[in-house]
Amino acid sequence: MDLCYTAEEDTFRSELRAWLADVLPHVPPEPPTHEWAARRVWDTAWQQMLFEAGYAGINWPTEYGGRGATPTEHLIFLEETERARAPYVGMNFVGLLHAGPTLVVEASAEQKAAHLPPILRGEHVWCQGFSEPSAGSDLAALRCRAIRDGDHYVISGQKIWTSFAHVADYCEILVRTDTDVPKHRGITWLIMPMDSAGIDVRPLRTMDGGIEFSEMFLDEVRVPVANRVGDENDGWRVAMTTLSFERGTAFVSELLQTMELVADLAELAKHITRRSALAWDDAGLRRDLGKVAAELDALWALTRRNISEASRTGLVGAGGNVFKLAYTDLRHRLGEIAMHLLERASLSMDDIDELPSGRHVHGRIHGLKMTIAAGTSQVQRNIIGERLLGLPKER
Amino acid sequence: MDFWLSDDERDLQDGIRSFLLGRFPIDVVRAGEEQPGVIDRDRWRELAATGVFSVAADIGMRAAVLVFEELGRALVPGPLAASALAAAWVSGTATGDTIVGVLETLDDPVLVEHPAQVDVLLIVSDEGLLRLDASALTMHTIERPLDTLTPVAVVRRPLPAATRVDTSSAARQFERDAVVLTSALQLGVALGATHLAQEYAKQREQFGRPIGGFQAVKHLLADMLVKSEVARSAVYAAACAVDGAGTDDAYRAASVAKVMAGEAALFCGKTGIQVHGGMGFTWEVHAQRYWKRAVALDNSFGIIDHHAAIIAATL
Ligand SMILES: Cc1cc2nc3c(=O)[nH]c(=O)nc-3n(C[C@H](O)[C@H](O)[C@H](O)COP(=O)(O)OP(=O)(O)OC[C@H]3O[C@@H](n4cnc5c(N)ncnc54)[C@H](O)[C@@H]3O)c2cc1C
């Protein structure tokens, strides 16, 4: 057991670092969060740059445009890009971190050839159509129906909370193909082009006033059978692959960003006064931030353990659930510390002159989202209790 | 000792609650989000007519906290606490013709709430209680306030000269009473958030049963209730202390109420969002409104940390 990098890994790191130093000064400033058209251009441009430099799909197979590198190199990539404050995946999140990795493992050669390269080049934006109004935590209860009609599936039903649906080109969608078998067995995983007839996307406003996810109404949407990934009625297993990716490396960049957030908060506290004293003079604040920083270092260690496990076994194990629960809980507490430091400035979702109140308030709201999205904290605890500890089920 | 509501107190609270249900239902209150200033002057006068801005002076703090608890639960916006305590220095408050806020000037940035609608501002300072016309301030309105029903503006320094209207002990007492009224609002926010989540947990089904049937959810709701009831006790005790209906130190009791009700409101606000799942993260569902108001109220008249430090100093 060690935390040393090999000579090749060190070379990979220093080359990447040099490349980032070279290109980052030429990246235009990030567009505002909710200007989706401009963001799409920006996200795509960055992904193109990565692709051309050979840094897209670090751990994806080379025949589909990836680099075929090790999970450790993937981690180094995430670490270095974040440290350099390079753009994040943005709306390519689902394509690069959910749908793409699932296709790598589960799709046919034709499907991979058709979809993986455009994802890597940033040309196709994907969304995830799993949740439904009555199937959230109980995802397997989904009802969106797909009926076979010759060489097509005809899909009718409703999805909800579909992030990026209003900008996506493709949707990884779970549909019910058999209603007569236990709920997990009658589900199929399909690639649905978002320009198909019969899709009505209605954006929902989130609590920060912006648009991020949508309701999606599907009325006899025809999707070719050739777009099915895995067997008919085997979609639950395919989907679980996706979800384990979601809980694996998908949070690495976030974790590193959060470390920066803590460093920036400490820096801020050293410059602002609260009740006529320097905020940093408050021992309580220093202790709180110190604890959070300790937890983040430990979670970084957990991440490296998880990655090492994945390198050996090819799978993200239970460490993914442990990480999600611990990390999202921490984000709540960190958010509260930041709000207390800001005091009255936390009443503003915009920055106030030089004070980054907007950034920290949005960070707090992000925490509120993270304990719900991608499986709530309660559900994570159930999984840990039942699968890791072997405790009896409640239901 | 009889630390339980009298029949009159119960009637008062029931009365204001049904008034608010009729005249300030949540859908009416939130409609204010679509207007440039969220306070409707006619409705403000209606609040005045029911005694919201005179109850503290006319009846006492115990009656006032019962009224303010309901105002908090209903998410009624505006500088309620300051307006209810300003009659001695500003005319037209009891009738609702004048809206009075406060300016907390110690640290930067100085943020004023309801900048477009507040008429007069009071400042608690070491020299005493100061008064300022809001129109004298140079302000920059924040485009996206956290709580849309609590619009804010940054006040540019230097601040215009303010008139001293009372002694520093009067100022301290004003602040103490405002702390107690604010804690009553926070208690109401905690109760409102809990009620909404409780109803949702009974009705929303996953895995073939109401989510409230899962212990994980049941325990979240139980914690919300516990925090709220502990806070309620602290708020009512502070009101008794202010009214002299007991021997507790009113200043310390006020800080205790602000800490406990502040914690309850923030906890119930965020937990209410969690209980709603994805729904909780939407604009449409009210869960987020309680959390945002909880943040706004924590920042009125001193945050939890500030009051905790005051209490620590008494140990
Ligand atoms: C910002 C955001 C983005 C999202 N993006 C997507 C997306 O792109 N695609 C997609 O498909 N989905 C997406 N989701 C949906 C997300 O996966 C669901 O919101 C989540 O799984 C919870 O489901 P729900 O909202 O139906 O809540 P519910 O399942 O109704 O949960 C309500 C409450 O009940 C609790 N609960 C439910 N079941 C149990 C149980 N068995 N034991 C204990 N407690 C329980 C929950 O923890 C929660 O507190 C997103 C959600 C958010 C908030």
Description:
The complex is a heterodimer of chains A (395) and B (315). By secondary structure, chain A is of the alpha+beta class. Helix content of chain A is 47%, strand content 16%. Chain A has helices spanning 7-23, 36-52, 71-83, 93-106, 109-120, 235-246, 252-269, 283-313, 319-342, 357-370, 377-388; strands at residues 126-129, 145-149, 152-163, 170-176, 187-193, 199-205, 211-224, 228-229, 273-274, 277-278. Chain A has a four-stranded mixed sheet. Chain A has a four-stranded antiparallel sheet with strand order 2-3-7-6, with no helix packed on it. A two-stranded antiparallel sheet of chain A has the order 9-10. In chain A, strand 2 (145-149) and strand 3 (152-163) form a beta hairpin. Chain B has 315 residues and is an alpha+beta fold. Chain B has three domains: 7-85, no CATH class; 100-168, no CATH class; 169-313, Butyryl-CoA Dehydrogenase, subunit A, domain 3 (Up-down Bundle). Chain B has helices at residues 7-23, 26-31, 41-49, 55-58, 61-73, 80-85, 168-203, 215-242, 250-275, 287-298, 304-313; strands at residues 100-102, 110-113, 120-125, 128-133, 139-141, 152-155, 163-166, 205-206, 209-210. In chain B, the strands form three sheets. In chain B, strands 1-3-4-7 form a four-stranded mixed sheet. A three-stranded antiparallel sheet of chain B has the order 2-6-5, with no helix packed on it. In chain B, strands 8-9 form a two-stranded antiparallel ribbon. In chain B, a hairpin with a 2-residue loop joins strand 8 (205-206) and strand 9. Chain B starts with 6 loop residues before the first helix and ends with a helix. At the A-B interface, strand 9, helix 9, helix 10 and helix 11 of A face strand 8, helix 8, helix 9, helix 10 and helix 11 of B. The complex binds flavin-adenine dinucleotide. Flavin-adenine dinucleotide sits between chains A (127-131, 136-137, 161-163, 212-213, 369, 372-376, 378-379, 382) and B (204, 206-207, 211, 214, 216-217, 274-275, 277-278, 281).
